[in-house]
Design brief:
The protein is an alpha+beta fold. The chain has two helices and nine strands. It is elongated and about 80 Å long.
Length: 184
């Protein structure tokens, strides 16, 4: 009986910690997948000497790598890349996605800037959730906020000069709110 009680107590203590570890792993694997997609678009842009972009759909979590299309020597938009594995896919539906590009706000690159696009921002007109990668090895300045159901967040900040993503971990929203209230 004592052994069974000890196993029950230890299980009760370990299971909540494992849940957080699983959600953290899910969040980090989603971030890694996006970094890989950004790397694919970057390498295609440099190799093919053609603008590539990654389109992200915040509602469905779908991503698509697109290449610039030309007609009669003039750029005429973008078309999805279909002949490359992993150029299209779906992010885990348990992870929410928010995007901010340089077109959305000034001060994007500041270290403390955590403003992201919300539904209210859409009232200012249509916007594209696409990040472009250029043949010279640069990219649009952008941030992608990934958030799981528990409130844990990761920010992928894309450096416009090197086109590399930096991962910034953030505490859950509820603990930040509690810390802010405690400081007041």
């Amino acid at each position: 009986m004592v052994v069974l009680v000890l196993i029950g107590v230890l299980s009760a203590m370990i299971l909540p910690e494992m849940k957080g570890s699983f959600e953290d792993a899910l969040l980090r694997s989603t971030a890694r997948k996006l970094i890989d997609v950004f790397g694919l678009a970057y390498s295609r842009a440099v190799t093919l000497n053609q603008v590539q972009r990654v389109r992200l759909d915040r509602q469905t979590g779908r991503y698509t790598v697109e290449q610039s299309r030309t007609e009669d020597g003039q750029a005429s938009g973008f078309a999805p890349v279909r002949d490359v594995p992993e150029s299209q896919g779906l992010l885990d539906p348990r992870i929410t996605l928010e995007i901010q590009t340089a077109r959305d706000s000034t001060g994007l690159g500041s270290a403390g800037d955590t403003r992201f696009v919300s539904g209210a921002d859409l009232a200012f007109g249509p916007r594209e959730d696409a990040i472009s990668f250029y043949p010279d090895g640069t990219a649009d300045a952008a941030q992608v906020l990934l958030r799981d159901r528990a409130g844990f967040r990761l920010i992928l900040r894309l450096n416009p000069i090197t086109a590399r993503a930096q991962v910034i971990a953030r505490e859950p929203l509820r603990s930040q709110t509690a810390a802010t209230e405690g400081a007041q």
